[in-house]
Amino acid sequence: MSQSIWTIDTSHTTAQFSVRHMMVSTVRGHFQGVTGTLSLDESDVTKSKIEVSIDATTIDTRDEKRDTHLKSADFFDVEKHPKITFTSSKVTQKSEGHLLVEGTLDMHGVSKPVTLEVEGLTPAFKNPWGQTVRGAHAQAKVNRKDWNLNWNVALETGGILVGEDVKLDLDVELTLKA
Fold it and tell me: What does pTM read for this prediction?
């Protein structure tokens, strides 16, 4: 079995982000509804492909007022852009258990290249329900302004309300497609 198809297990996958707030704290949030597939070349991982889709309407930062603002045209504009997607274009084996996955991140109507640093892919095993599963952790750092997420407020004391650099963290559980 050289080529296998894996689907993202939505209930066991998280897409999280963090960004500086007022230059003094970090706001963390996450999205629900992460879906996608991994076409894994077992004999040569560099020939693998991944596609991920995130439901932008599910943004949750534990503050309803902030979440409503993030969904608005000031930020994600989820009425016009309800999905965030990533499609890989190149996979490089960095070291044992570490990959660099280059691809295109489509967000807020803008497509830009992003490189994910991936830890794992864990070995495949059967879970208690008889499914073959594996997992991985991916992270990247992006500048939100590259996707026209420009809203901000200058602070009287200097600096800005919302940082530009956003850390992305994905914990993905994959199930072998029958």
Answer: 0.89
